[in-house]
């Protein structure tokens, strides 16, 4: 089986997401060498290569895709979309308030999900 290879996470995107999430009560972890953010062990946002992705409700995913042409399903491996996750378009990165608004939606949605069980040791 061939090992999956991902591009390096963008330092700019990491800095942007870290700054936007300073006031959120969440856990920061590394997944495939890039930061992801979790609430109750449910991932709600992260950096993948040169983009930021978020977990959104069906309604919010439809909303972001209707408002921003650059929004799309998060597909870290070609042909394998993570259906609850959307890649956030560039227009949102440059506006700290808009980014926080969408992160808040993602955080609230992930908070509503049942907590994931921890790994057994």
Write the layout of secondary structure elements.
Blueprint lengths: L10 H10 L6 E5 L2 E6 L2 E7 L2 E5 L2 H10 L4 E6 L2 E8 L2 H4 L2 H17 L9
Antiparallel strand pairs: 1-2, 2-3, 3-4, 4-6, 5-6
How does this structure look, described?
The chain is of the alpha+beta class. It has one domain (11-112): 2-Layer Sandwich (Yope Regulator, Chain: A). The chain has a six-stranded antiparallel beta sheet with strand order 1-2-3-4-6-5. The longest helix has 17 residues, at 96-112. It has helices spanning 11-20, 58-67, 90-93, 96-112; strands at 27-31, 34-39, 42-48, 51-55, 72-77, 80-87. The chain is built from four helices and six strands.
Enumerate the strands of the largest sheet in spatial order, edge to edge or round the barrel: 1-2-3-4-6-5
Assigned CATH architecture: 2-Layer Sandwich
Inertia-based shape: globular
Helix content: 25-40%
CATH superfamily: YgaC/TfoX-N like chaperone
Gyration radius over CA: 14 Å
Helix/strand structural class: alpha+beta
The main β sheet shows up as:
6 strands, antiparallel
CATH class: Alpha Beta
Primary descriptors:
six-stranded antiparallel beta sheet, 121 residues, Yope Regulator, Chain: A, alpha+beta
């Amino acid at each position: 089986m061939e090992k999956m290879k991902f591009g390096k996470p963008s330092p700019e995107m990491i800095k942007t997401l870290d700054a936007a999430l300073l006031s959120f009560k969440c856990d920061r972890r590394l997944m495939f060498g890039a930061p992801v953010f979790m609430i109750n062990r449910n991932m709600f946002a992260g950096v993948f290569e040169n983009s930021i992705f978020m977990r959104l409700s069906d309604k919010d995913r439809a909303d972001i895709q209707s408002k921003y042409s650059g929004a799309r399903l998060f597909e870290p491996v070609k042909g394998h979309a993570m259906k609850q996750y959307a890649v956030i378009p560039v227009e949102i990165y440059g506006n700290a308030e808009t980014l926080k608004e969408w992160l808040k939606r993602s955080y609230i949605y992930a908070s509503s999900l049942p907590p994931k069980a921890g790994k057994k040791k």
